[in-house]
Amino acid sequence: MGDINLEVLDSRLSDSLQKAEVTKCEELIQLSNYELLKLGNISLKDVQIIHKMAAEKYFKRRFQSVSDMLKSSSPKWNRLSTGCEYINKLLRGGIPRRGITELSGESGSGKTQFCLQLTITVQLPFYNGGFNAGAVYICTEDKFPSPRLQQLFTTFPLSTHEDKKKLGDNVFIEHIADVDGLKQCVMTQLPHLLTRQSIGLVVIDSITAVFRADYDQHDMATRAKDLRTVGLQLHSLANQFHISVLCVNQVSSLIQQDNNCRSILVPALGLAWSNLVTTRLQMIQGETDNRALHVIFSPELPQTSCPYKISASGISGSETI
Description:
This protein has 321 residues and is of the alpha/beta class. Helices cover 40% and strands 21% of the residues. The protein folds into two domains: 6-58, DNA polymerase, domain 1; 69-317, 3-Layer(aba) Sandwich (Rossmann fold). Strand 11 (291-297) and strand 12 (305-311) form a beta hairpin. The protein contains 13 helices and 13 strands. The mean pLDDT is 85. The radius of gyration is 26 Å and the shape is elongated. Helix 7 (111-121) packs across helix 8.
């Protein structure tokens, strides 16, 4: 944090500190009163003055307003717009540019639709909630839904003024069938691409497929280790390159032990994966096709919900429940 300004001290204190070759703030605030008194012609009152000056320079930060914080904040605090004002309101701006965001839900709930939508919004200018960057889409279950993405290029409201060819050129696709392939991708291929291309979003659709298929009940410790390897690498890449990471997860049925023995849907992969997730979102499909996006947990979002529907133009929400 630099040297303390000795010029503002009287010559006696300045000479004592210079002779002892102790002039840096970090050194001064770590010295006890007794250690400073031993340096020379310094009184207890002088020690208090020295400590105060060093601390004021070392700890420069003061209380600041939210607007000042946002103006001075680094890119990692930006959020990627979902393209829907209601869902953005639920998520306080969109998908975080740090950590891992998980999106779980039943088959047909719209998880892949949501991901495809983000591959468009990430390419939009910053003033439209995008990052002016490309997207990486890693498929582990089905073939990449290129026809649906091409449709969204035309129907998604925010893409209508963009060059359709440019939108397609900025989505990088990889198909992976097993855990070893996923590990190799996130450890080697993905970092290499991130250093060469401007990427703002990485999607894994889904994280569940490879980790459910490649292990049996006797390999749970190995699976947990491999999950940590992939998860920690994704955290590292998000932090290093300021990207949004979205992992799609499947759901499992859990019987609640209450009077009704009700069955609820919970994200798959258990505690080993849950501990790696920063923000957990879940798409829930009701009995009459009523759908809602829920915030299950997040370090900065309340547990709230937003109804949504799926149409040819993408996923759109309505007022928060």
